[in-house]
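Might I ask for a little of your time on a matter of protein folding? The record follows directly beneath this note:
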Amino acid sequence: MISGRRNLLVVVPGGGAPSLVRSASRVVDALGRSSHGSGRSIYGGGTTTHHDRTIRWNVGSPERRRQPFFLTSRHFAIGVFERKKPHMNIGTIGHVDHGKTTLTAAITKVCANQNRGTFKSYEEIDKTPEEQKRGITINATHVEYETEKRHYSHIDCPGHLDYVKNMITGTSQMDGSILVVSAYDGLMPQTKEHVLLSRQIGIEKMIVYMNKIDMCEDKELVDLVELEIRELLSFHKYDGDNIPIIKGSALKALNEDQSEYGVPSILKLLDACDNYIDEPKRKMDLPFLMSIDDVLQISGKGTVATGRVEQGTLKLNDPVEIMGIKEKPIKTVVTGIEMFRKTLDAAQAGDQIGVMLKNVKKNDISRGMVVTKVPNLKTYKKFESDVYVLKNEEGGRKNPFSSYYRPQAYIRTADVNCAVILNEDTQVANPGDNIKCTIELMYPLALASGLRFSLREGGRTVASGIITKVI
């Protein structure tokens, strides 16, 4: 509790963040009213102007000083994000029940024991009631941790067929991925599709964690599964011969087992992430653009859009536009930036952030829209493209399709119904064909030449392509 002279009382409950206490001390003192009756003040580093402004607004005027002001950590982020190491976005992909979430929890535990992050339990990662009831991941979940070389944002993607849409959203934000394969079960349908989607989205480097190795006593079977994994990766034009494959047990590591397949396997995995996955070249010199993957309503604060910064930088109080899906752009101002509940004065390409938007209601925006500072950016419903139609053995269709075929298009974080219009010289598109076609979307999106996209139908990916011209 911080008490002042006369009628000022600022209360910080025990669970409040220390930075709130420091901000309250400094602001109260600056206003000429000491934070202690003795005239002494408490100062500390790491406070933010966001804290200071809010406290000043509540205690800086005579009419408000008559009442206690209760300051709790739910009003703010819990600290300040310090950019000390290169930031990377990584994540777990693979078939349902192969251990992606357990591995994510194990990584956070190993890093937390080295004071390089906060432990997140399985239940905290799969936190919705339906996820806990069904024992599967539905939404892509983000956690953070550090290694000796890097700071990681880790995305735990759903593996269940019904939630591939959320998996695509998660994968589109990654710089590299960890493919989790159960040594006991081997390659499964979603294993193959996730590798395919990763290649289509443009993930260049992948590491394999062969999980549940303790359940598989047959060494020949383990060797066979490893061979199948390498063949699958090579088929999708990854370096299957040289990709690191770490064998271990995520559950053993989560239980802090120090045997070969426990904690040491996680340390090997993190070392592979540091040394095998290259740091991407960020598009820092381009105007800011972030594709929205989720929209949150924070009680007492406003609307927050979350997503990965695709290009450029963003600062507090920057004017931005929200575009896509709706015919007219929404103009607003950024009033707050956070990453993992830590405040940022500025965000940059590659950051996974939440952006607070002034005077924007939650229902005004949705996943698939973009927050941007790109001048004169337009939205389009139509574009020309080069498309590869997947073969049946690649998970695609058995039969050809003709003009005005209507799958769903997945572009950035958007998924929208569309019509595929074949060129005049193409009667039908057969599995395995490379074609040129025009795609017409049901609603407009912010598009540009060079963007990759996928076409899906009936729970499977049927084609992948690249935009060559917007119309």
The chain has four domains: 2-80, 87-276, 289-372, 379-470. DSSP finds eleven helices and 25 strands in the chain.
